[in-house]
Amino acid sequence: MGFARACSVALVGVEGVVVEVQADLEPGVAAFTLVGLPDKSLVESRDRVRAAVVNSGAEWPQKKLTVGLSPASVPKGGSGFDLAVAMAVLGAAERIDPKAIADLVLIGELGLDGRVRPVRGVLPAVLAAAEAGYRQVVVPEQTAGEASLVPGVSVLGVRSLRQLIAVLTDEPVPEEEAVPEGSPDPMLAGLMVPGAGVGTGLAMTPVEGPDLADVAGQRAARKALEVAAAGGHHLLLHGPPGAGKTMLAERLSGVLPPLTRRESLEVTAVHSVAGILPPGEPLVRTPPYCAPHHSATMQSLVGGGTGLPRPGAVSLAHRGVLFLDETPEFSGKALDALRQPLESGHVVVARSAGVVRLPARFLMVLAANPCPCGRHTLHGAGCECPPSAVRRYQARLSGPLLDRVDLRVGVEPVDRSDLLGRGGRGESTAAVAARVREARERAAARLEGTPWRVNSEVPGHELRTRWLVAPGALSAAERDMERGLLTARGLDRVLRVAWTVADLAGRDRPQAHDVDLALQLRTGISRGVPVTLGGGGR
Predict the structure, then answer these.
(1) Model confidence over 310-329: pLDDT tens digits?
(2) Domain over 3-173 is classified CATH 3.30.230.10
């Protein structure tokens, strides 16, 4: 009787569980049994592994073979267990030393010819292995760079099962034929899943993206964009078509600071699991920008699918921007599903196959027209929408959702002087990004030693008791609350915005005009505070 074990990783959402792959050989009729709650694609690994072992020059054991995946209570799916199953079988057949693979984590799919194909989710899988104490992993060569992002782990990238057997048996490593330069590599098909990004509108922020200086006029909206980026505040842009709402939203991710190392790993892990990580670029360094179409379903926004849920648009926009253009056209159920991630920064999706927790800390930008035709607020534009249609259209954005939006700014049509450049060219993305970076540094210094990093994450109780505004600065906000214009949550959000305005202006704490500007940006009611670019009302 022969026995050997190796290790692999099962992914549940973006979190991994180390799985022990045990192979047992006993005398009897040749058979291959796979147990341990595998799904359909994993059950099919029996045929893939057998063909790969034989075509790699190794002998397949003609005995009763049982392969167990432990813990058996964890659902396991995908083809990433193939490599571990093959090595456990070869260890049980004493083709390789069982001790050499006992503490080795192996991740990869096997082709029938023995080649090792890349799979999705290598980064979160290696992170889970490292947290469990494993220090050696074997992955497909194409994903070795992704696995190497995890510190303290020795990574071996292999192209074929033959190479891995040679490494473990101290034999000469055979050379595998490389793909000619310029030719398509079919092995990369496992990294990018067709259709995984459909409906999400995902795009990486290029180093030289669209410039904020291209936006004509819109001083109030540009200021709101700067405040949103500096404090992580959600933003609603409402106005007629063609005023520049989409242009502003597309430039927001360029204003955000670059991702930290930890944030980059979080974003890369989500994109790796979703199958949208570009080959050759294992680390996502810039904030993602995700703009799903208004026909997107609730599952595509917050996560879902058959079996264990897959990341949705809110997770793909983690640490970046989620832009919902034509927001009233989205289904009410899909929009209301955003309320939980807006508050908690994550999504908990429960399905019959299990419960998955997905990260979803994003900056949301909503864009809406005033009515179905978009001309309701324009004088002499000929809006023919009846008042009832206008009310129904505007009511599609529910009160609880809007209450979670810190900034609500009207985007007016651009006048001729601004459009032709006579009003002066606006500030560039680089200039605004520099102020945003300085404001975030001030907030980070103030919040040092706390679990929060930006003003939008600070609970209202802490702002009211720990970090106080200037005496009398809240008078206008208190009056609005008494008149019913502000809820308790709304007052807390005004405080957060006021702190961001003060950070942009370089002040130690908000003054009365900082709170007034925060109220103006939230309620859309003019408070007589000038909206100046670059000074935050200084």
Answers:
(1) 899 999 999 999 999 999 99
(2) yes
